[in-house]
Amino acid sequence: MKTIDEIKELNIDVPDVQNISGYNGIYNRYIKRILDLFFSVFLFVLLLPLFLIISVAIAADSGFPVFYRAQRGGYKNQPFKIYKFRTMVQNADQIGGGTTALNDARITRVGAFLRKTKLDEIANLINIIRGEMSFIGPRPELLRYTNLYCGNEKYIFEVRPGITDFSSDLFINLDEIVGSENADEMYEKYVLKNKNALRVKYAAEVSFPTDVHIFFKTVIDVLKKTSSFLLRKGR
Questions:
Q1: pLDDT tier at 101, thresholds 50, 70, 90
Q2: Which of 1, 25, 97, 155 would disulfide-bridge 184, Cβ 3.0–4.6 Å?
């Protein structure tokens, strides 16, 4: 994880077209989907009690619905509705921008905990079962940004969006990077281009070893962030 100043100076290059070939391999086209389906169904059944607990907590805190569903750019440029546990007030999209700001007033009490522990994203299992997402892959992006993909960025559509990718570690403190004012502007200026470059990098390098590396790196990062959050809350 880089500092905010380092992020602002970051300029990641998009891979050259001759180096973008991983997406066309057997692993991405066939094996990855089989693994996704097996593990997502298994985890969904295993985590059903947790789904119920989170749903009750959200409903008690801020009412229904318990899921946040919104359009995202998907595999083969097919839009889909993402499933996440709702962490903001109802109709948050109509109140503020698409980027979550630092100390965003739209975030609910339960939502703050879910975001810090990444538990809001386990609802993505529904999208994985439906074939719209993968465990590992470029984080789903708003349509207003995916509609602007050009050149090598279009290779992002050749892999399924995922829960975590190369950018997850780099931008794990995204709310701190974009700040409390003009979050969308800060995101577009300092984050989006670099995120897209890392999304293309994933399309170029997608493989079983790459996914294993990203998975364990993400687990470590989330555990660190969660423990830090719980320690602060305990003081």
A1: confident
A2: 97
